[in-house]
Write a structure and sequence with these properties.
Blueprint: H1 13-24, H2 42-45, E1 51-53, H3 58-71, E2 88-94, E3 97-103, H4 126-131, H5 136-151, H6 162-178, H7 186-194, H8 201-220, E4 229-233, E5 239-243, E6 258-262, H9 268-277, E7 289-292, E8 295-298, H10 303-309, H11 317-320, E9 326-332, E10 340-346
Parallel strand pairs: 1-2, 6-10
Antiparallel strand pairs: 2-3, 3-4, 4-5, 7-8, 7-9, 9-10
Length: 361
């Protein structure tokens, strides 16, 4: 465990950590990357056999989860191709609490399967902030969400700007005095605005050690791995528990195909329209491209492929899929970090297609 040194202040954590690890462990090479993980091309992650996460947001975890699940290829019977699986080991801490988990895409529940584990972010009604503040957090959020826009119109708030944060703190103090609310400090202001939770060194060490151990098990198969999820609570003694969670068979991220039933008469264009209407998909799609068993049914880009596949939009989908009663379509979209697999099932009560004319453009 290393503690912050004055010469490290202001430097990127990735750079400092890499230098310290290489200083301590001779012969090892650590390459730091100081950027958002979303900025890395998906091909970057293909170079790794195991991915270990220590991320600080649900959004970042969801992104990596969808990336590795998108790497998984499935056999015709729906079983995953083991050679395409990249295991994920995830760890996170919040004060004296922490968790570690192992995700084997296509086999165990993925991150999206168990989003219910994470409580929703705390929010405050604007009417409470504006009319009846009752806590220091209410005063801080009033200055942050309401007063900033009123007093500094057109200026974008930057939580990493010390002058901006000091302004929020000063305004929160004034509002606290107005409503006789005490306990407003600069550190609390930072915590509320940036959703900062204190880091406890012992908690971080326990979770980090657990993640390293699980990674070692996966790499060497020296022992049985964790049963999916481990929870640590250190507020009252030490409590450790592993929990097996169930995989969602219809998960839009890690399932071999999200089920969708449609009429046999539906065209490819109407099928795409149906995806936008379905609450499971609509927020994840902008301009979807559709393929079937390696054949491009419709491509949004480049323009030459869009023009070539455009006639398919008016074709019955069942004809484009060779008359199969149920099979998987692959959906690609710029909003997706991986492939969305949709298992289409055609209703039997629709008109039968003449298979003598089956073909794709």
């Amino acid at each position: 465990m290393y503690y912050c040194r004055m010469q490290d202040v202001g430097k990127a954590k990735a750079d400092v950590a890499a230098a310290r690890v290489m200083q301590r462990v001779k012969g090892v090479t650590v390459t730091p990357h100081f950027c958002k993980i979303e900025e890395k091309d998906i091909s970057f992650f293909k170079d790794f056999q195991i991915i270990v996460l220590g991320l600080d947001s649900l959004e970042a975890r969801s992104y990596i989860n969808s990336v590795v699940c998108g790497f998984v290829e499935y056999e015709e019977d729906g079983s995953p191709d083991l050679s395409t699986i990249k295991p994920l080991v995830d760890g996170g801490t919040e004060g004296f609490k922490g968790h570690a988990r192992v995700i084997i895409p296509g086999i165990t529940p993925c991150f999206h399967c168990s989003l219910w584990l994470f409580p929703p972010q705390i929010t405050f009604p604007l009417c409470t902030l504006a009319e009846t503040p009752r806590s220091p957090a209410h005063c801080i959020e009033f200055a942050h969400l309401i007063q900033w826009g009123q007093d500094r119109t057109g200026e974008t708030f930057d939580a990493d700007n010390p002058e901006h944060m000091k302004w929020i703190y000063d305004q929160a103090l004034k509002r606290g005095e107005q409503f006789n609310i005490s306990g407003i400090t600069y550190s609390l202001t930072q915590g509320v605005v940036k959703n900062i939770v204190p880091a406890i060194a012992s908690t971080n060490a326990i979770i980090a050690a657990t993640c390293v151990l699980e990674t070692l098990k996966i790499a060497t198969m020296c022992s049985t791995g964790m049963d999916i999820y481990m929870q640590y609570t250190g507020t009252e003694g030490i409590y450790l528990r592993t929990v097996p969670h169930d995989k969602d068979p219809n998960c839009i991220i890690c399932s071999p195909g999200v089920p969708l039933e449609v009429d046999k008469s539906i065209t490819l264009q109407k099928f795409i329209d149906t995806l936008f209407k379905d609450r499971r998909f609509k927020l994840k799609l902008s301009k979807p491209s559709v393929s079937y068993h390696g054949n491009n049914l419709y491509m949004q880009a480049p323009p030459v492929l869009e023009e070539m596949t455009r006639p398919n939009l008016q074709e019955p989908l069942v004809r484009l899929m060779g008359g199969e009663k149920s099979d998987v379509l692959n959906i690609n979209d710029r909003r997706l970090s991986g492939v969305l697999r949709v298992r289409v099932t055609f209703r039997d009560d629709a008109e039968t297609i003449d298979m003598d004319t089956v073909g794709t453009h």
